[in-house]
């Protein structure tokens, strides 16, 4: 065995990088192969036009939200946006469509979403603005989403446990117990 140290074991969580597939030196990919990949991804992919009308909905989106592609395509994104968040969503959406800029292409956004049966789930996603070459304004926006409900519930549970422990610790230390030195 060589004297080099192996890096940490791969524990998953990091998406593989496919950027090399899009480099100029790589052979062009067949658009049908790319379309099949997007359709079959484990993460949901939703594409909407500048008005927020859904134009693409993959199989993972069907599993995540409970709406079939035929039911979702042609409908507003309101289909999955909780009513209390719609004004905020649409203000941001319109701003992005007007400016052609979003901070969420490189940053994960975590928000509540609606399932078909009415229950709320927590989703995490990034977006990509689809723009014609040389244009500033996008013609569509694509989101890659996943269910983050379990992780969000664990985080809230941990916060509750920490608060309980901090309260118990504070209660067990009375002002007279403090060491004056």
Largest sheet: 5 strands, antiparallel
Q: Quick one: how many beta strands?
A: 5
Radius of gyration: 23 Å
For the residues shown, what is the average pLDDT?
Answer: 82
The arrangement of helices and strands along the chain is HEEHHHEEEH
The quaternary organization reads as single chain
Structure, described:
The chain has a five-stranded antiparallel sheet. Residues 1-13 have low confidence and may be disordered. With 181 residues, it is of the alpha+beta class. The chain contains five helices and five strands, in the order αββαααβββα. It is elongated. 33% of the residues lie in helices and 19% in strands. The chain has helices at residues 31-40, 59-65, 69-72, 86-99, 149-172, and strands spanning 44-48, 54-57, 109-114, 120-130, 140-147.
Task: Provide a brief overview of the structure.
The protein is an alpha+beta fold. It has 5 helices and 5 strands; from the N terminus they run αββαααβββα.
SSE layout:
Elements: H1 31-40, E1 44-48, E2 54-57, H2 59-65, H3 69-72, H4 86-99, E3 109-114, E4 120-130, E5 140-147, H5 149-172
Antiparallel strand pairs: 1-2, 1-5, 3-4, 4-5
Summary tags:
5 helices, five-stranded antiparallel beta sheet, disordered N terminus, 181 residues, elongated, alpha+beta
